[in-house]
Here is the input.
Amino acid sequence: MKKFVLIDANALVHRAFHALPPLNSPKGLPTNAVYGFTTVLLKMLGQLKPDYVAAAFDMAGPTFRHAKYVEYKATRTKAPDELYAQIPLVKRMLNALHIPVLEHKGVEADDIIGTVAERFKARDGLKVVIVTGDLDTLQLVDKDRVVVVTLRKGMSDTVLYDEQSVKDRFGIRPSQVVDYKGLKGDPSDNIPGVPGVGEKTATSLIATFGSIEGIYTALHADTGSKKAGKASSVSAKMKAKLLEHEEKARFSKELATIVRDVPVGLEPEEADWQRNLDVPAVKALCQEFGFYSLVKRIEQALAGAAPQAPQLELDAKPEEPAADVRIAASVDALPEGTQAAVHVQAEDGDTFTVFAAVTEEETWRLDGAGRGDVARVLERYGTVLTHDAKQLLKLSGRTDISTDAWFDTMIAAWLINPELRDYGLDRIAYETLNHYLSEHPAGRPAVILRLAREQRATLEQLKLDRLMYGMEMPLVAVLARMEDRGILVDRALITSLAGEAKKELTSLEKKIHKLAGGEFNIGSPKQLAEVLFERLAIRGKVRRTSTGALSTAAGELEKLADEHPVIALILQWRELSKLVSTYIEPFPLLIREDGRIHTTYNQTGTATGRLSSQDPNLQNIPTRTTLGQRFRGAFTAPEGYRLLSLDYSQIELRIAAHLSADKTMQEVFARGEDIHTRTASEVFRVPADAVTKDMRRQAKVLNFGIIYGMGVMGFARAAGVPRESARRFIDDYFARFPGVADYMNKTKRAAAKEGHVRTLLGRHRPLPDIASTMPQVAAQAERIAINHPVQGTDADIVKQAMLDLEHDLVKSYGDKARMLLQVHDELVLEVHESAVAEVAARAKRIMEKVFPLAVPLVVDAKSGRNWSEMEPV
Here is the structure.
């Protein structure tokens, strides 16, 4: 039997919009509803395999129901503009899929669906399937000829309703759904129904009398009759209520009834979506909307439905040389002064399965290239075009080669759009060139070349070229060398700490179980919530999760710290558990033969420009516990050397003082005063020597919170003060530091006008959500606007310090001073013990002069045998 699928497009668009977080296209258009709708559509096409498909939409303006009842749907809140802006995009996707869009003035999408379903359900060999996001169309279900598929749990799950499943769930036939709504009403559509009639009463009445008409026929027949009729089963109170609101019940049923005579002309052949399906157009829309992950699903869902999109014509086509062609021959063949584009696909021991070099004229594919062969090419050509330059440099074994003149398409893509999560070559090529690479590996070098051309122009247009060539590309080689050097680790200490940590975890578990009144899985959010909020009946304002359960996230539990002593122990257990599972236990496996840990720095891991690290992540080592502090002691220096820590002091606040031009803040830093004490003194209006620890703590929370865009609720939660106190505190802060308030307001206005913000060195952050009509989305964009110039400038300064310091150390000290780690605002060096004092002084001078601010940059230098036990130098 052939299937005709009718899509309730408006219902699915609304469901998708509210189920998915904000999402924007590369051009800044909101696309979360389009993405969700397209995902469901592809899933439906793949699973239902329909022969015909059509999509029905509501049209703007009142319907015939509004003409009958002016309050129809009057209680509905107007959807955000971001939702309505996506409906034309959804229609474009449907057009590309050759799915007819059906709409008619004065009626709703359900009426169009009802009309088409009624027309075609009687045709032999045809089954109508309605795909919707709500249950209004259940009244259209007709045995096995018309069924309804609805979404539940956001967008991830579906339920199919035929006649029997409607009866099983609601206790009524599909045709009686309108009677049910006539009695109970429908708050979502503002259909009144009969006051006081709920689900059970409505179902019981319909089961007894069959319909609203049947109910009132029986009630009127029973009125004044001496014989007991069917209406005798209805209580006198309910009977009076039904009779009083008879007109309302009949009218509500009329409003709820889907009409089936809309003048919509459609034949199944017109909905034959496979006949003229435009797959290239669908893929092009996915590229325009930024739906990279949907490309594969499109190919799977539409497999066999239409010819595949033509492949991208590459500027240079790879040639397959004879098997005995070696790298040396091709190196000699490269013209002098040309550029080399390099892509390494895989590594097998010391041999790379593919090595390719591209010039403007030709491409080589070279099998069996060895590490030394790759290094020779990198040495010979000053400019190398590649994707993930650091990986290539490390694989060549020559991290001493300069990358200043290289071009990395991965880093360029990140600078252009720092919000992406995936900067793989496949994704970037698709985003930029509309070309999916997974099935065309031989074309990768040529794609790198073409990418580089387009990205260079974009970098120049966005004024990011100086950041690219002056900072990010030179930093590649610095990071590669740091990763190669690694840092020495005390394996014995880690083993000892592992034993101690397990004992402490066991002790904490016993204490928690005792306070909780029984054993449970502390790591299970569900069990923890049951213990805290049901067994212990802890009360407090905590948010709920997407499932409706009270949250047990760390930030939420911190709000409840004073409500019960078990909370503090749970937070300790979590931090210690994280230390053990993330660091202490995996560390022995990460130590290489040289006894060192070699972390990997991710240059494109954050939108602010900060570096992140992995395997292991050295940025988030828990340090609040004693064991966490001792764990840092496992990072040590070899015999004859010391670790030297160089840490920027309060750099973000100093940048904020520069950006805001606040005279008080700048005065504090110029005098070398403690900013938190001064803030507390100003806000609490007490002398500096009268500031208490608690005052200073609250001032510190606010100082850092303000530059992260923290609001009243956030500060109240973080500082542990009532909401009104938090509001007064913030108001007083802005009164005493007016430059900060002025900076925040100016930054938000500029961001709204320009759609992005920049750091002092020019790193940009697009803010497509800044103009959102959804308050929470716009507020988040404003917080980013305030924070990015501060945190991003911090990242830029630290990176420039790394470049300047590495250049000076290599030039002046050779192996006597090596930069090993970068963690937040701290650089960790390994320095020969004879040169510690000299290097510390020299490094401080370099780092403090790296970028001119209106206030001085200050670096704290400490040295020691390990990363925990350090003394000022």
